[in-house]
Amino acid sequence: MINCRWLCAILFFFLMVGCGAISNADSSDPYLRKGIRLDIVGVNYVNRNVTSFWVDGNWGGNVGAARDAHSNGGNASTCCFNLVDYRKPIKIKWRLGGENSEPVMGSDGNYLPQKLLIAPVDKEAVVMLPQRLPQVIKTSSGIPETARQDTLCVIFKDMDTVKLEYGYVGCDEYRY
Questions:
Q1: DSSP code at position 138
Q2: What is the pLDDT of residues 148-173, one digit of tens each?
Q3: Which is nearest to 72 in space by CA: 45, 41, 40, 50?
Q4: pTM of the model
Q5: SS3 readout for 26-82
Q6: I need a surface site. Which of 21, 41, 42, 102 has the fewest CB within 10 A?
Q7: Which residue has the higher pLDDT, 147 or 29?
Q8: Residue 32: phi, psi to the nearest 5?
Q9: How far apart are CA 25 and CA 36, in angstroms?
Q10: 64 contacts 49 by C-beta, under 8 angstroms
Q11: What is the distance between the alpha carbons of residues 72 and 116, in angstroms, rounded to a whole number?
Q12: Torsions phi, psi of 5, nearest 5?
């Protein structure tokens, strides 16, 4: 019969091994222990401005509206999102800007207050990162710099859908 101490020791061992596999912060991988720093870039396929957006509380800036069906807004980057566990869902919050009427000049030469045609809208989604680590490559490695994935691309697909991808600098690979 198995001694109770041995049974407890075996259960404790498996518990510790399992907990160690869950947390990347305790990983022996130096990138994951401190996290991987990624710039944040917004890409907007919506015909309204994204006046502000946040990635797990990190401000991502604003993103201009798509001009037509064959273009999109965006390209500026902000710093930083710290990737520690790519398996963890990410909360994205964004505000779609409102639209005002065209300015009209009054008889006294001053502009009249514009009318609000479409009110700003706050949105929120919980999305998953790509289920792999980004390819963070040192520039001295001999691999082309465009192979690097040191940017988190926040892609606004429509009014209610956002997608996350890893990309290179301005996330050009996710533009029209």
A1: -
A2: 777 888 999 888 999 998 887 777 67
A3: 45
A4: 0.69
A5: HCCCHHHHHCEEEEEEEEECCCCCEEEEEECCEEEEEECCCCCCCCCEEEEEEEEEE
A6: 102
A7: 147
A8: -80, -30
A9: 11
A10: yes
A11: 24
A12: -65, -45
